[in-house]
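Lecture 7 notes: from sequence to structure.

We start with a single chain of 219 residues. Read the sequence below before looking at the structure.
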Amino acid sequence: MACTSCPGENKNATNDPRWRRILWIALILNAAMFLGEISAGIAGDSKALQADALDFLGDSANYAISLGVAGMALAWRARAALLKGATIFLFGLAILGATLWSALNGSVPHAEMMGVVGLIALAVNLAVAVLLYRYRTGDANMRSVWICSRNDAIGNLAVMAAALGVFGTGTAWPDLVVATMMAGLGLWGGMQIMVQARGELRSETSAALFRPQVEQLRE
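Now the structure, written as tokens:
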């Protein structure tokens, strides 16, 4: 079994043209889905769709950062992953706040729109997740991209379940429950990324401290 926290295990994969090509595809798809889903979420008054749209926006930024640091030293990739983890965590907090506000002031969302848009989003995220599957055991930066795609696919299934719940009950509570679950998923995923990134930074710092001593011994 591959070690998902070993700093040097996939160090050459970040220069893989296929990896960069997949990131570009993921970036374009996620940016397009953000525009479509945020519009549908506002029109349909669905907090779950809006939460998912914000997640697409966050992922677009994450893919752009990953493209920027691909090929750089591990320390820089770990710092980028730390930033991405913090961004995901903050999105989770924002979703929780928006869901609480909606519970007090919101109306019943449009279940049909939720279901259709959720199905399209699921298809997009599954396609991206399949493309990224081989890189799921890379460094923190690579793993963060995989976690984003995995979380998104799970979130889309939850949005579709919420659409059925709203349709069946005629209330907004299924939508609010799913939005809360998606927020929790974002918080957990962000923490996972930050923990691994901090471990890689500590490992790289320790290696840098011992490197001069090793070079002196060799001399």
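Residues 13-209 form a domain with the Alpha-lytic protease prodomain-like fold (CATH 1.20.1510). Keep this in mind for problem set 3.
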